[in-house]
Amino acid sequence: MKLPSILKVSLLTFLLTFTNCSKEEIVPDKSIGEWSIYSISDENGTATIWEDIKSDLVELIPEYACMSFTASISEKIVTTIYEFIDINSRGCLSPSYAVYTWSIDPETGFYQYVQGSNVINYSISFSNNDTRMTWIDQKSGAITVWDKDVELVAESTE
To answer: How far apart (Å, rounded) are the C-alpha atoms in residues 122 and 135?
Structure first.
């Protein structure tokens, strides 16, 4: 009769040990969220501040206020949306969307953005309490700086 009791205690101990193990919580990547362009630098390092260009153009033609350059990043997808001026009219062109899947290369730590056969490797860093993100294209050296849309973050947590 003692054998079944020992078996029950062993089975109970086994079940409690392995069913109560808490799962490791995965911390979301800092890049996930809504971002607006701050600046773009070409391979020569010449920086262009987006809002400076936009305000200069809007001062000339107010309808150009529709200009935008944003990124929306989820756990698996990056969508960039670029809306620029229509030089033949007083307005903007239809938005241009680019959608990529993304992952982090475990060997290099580079973010790999993949669209079909096009693969872009970015070194990504964060500053300003993780509200500013800098992409450095590992092939061209171009630098894109993004600011997190903090208002959208605040709205989603309310």
So the answer is: 6
User: Is residue 103 within 8 Å of 129, Cβ to Cβ?
Assistant: no
The more confidently predicted of residues 100 and 22 is: 100
Architecture per CATH, domain 30-157, reads as Beta Barrel (2.40)
Q: What is the mean pLDDT of residues 12-20?
A: 52
Domain ranges across the chain: 30-157
Which string of DSSP letters, residue by residue, matches 33-94? EEEEEEEEE-TT--EEEHHHHHHHHHHH-GGGGG-EEEEEE-SSEEEEEEE-EETTTTEEPP
Does the predicted model carry a pTM greater than 0.90?
Answer: no
CA dist., res. 112 & res. 154, Å (int): 28
Residue with the bigger pLDDT between 158 and 109: it is: 109
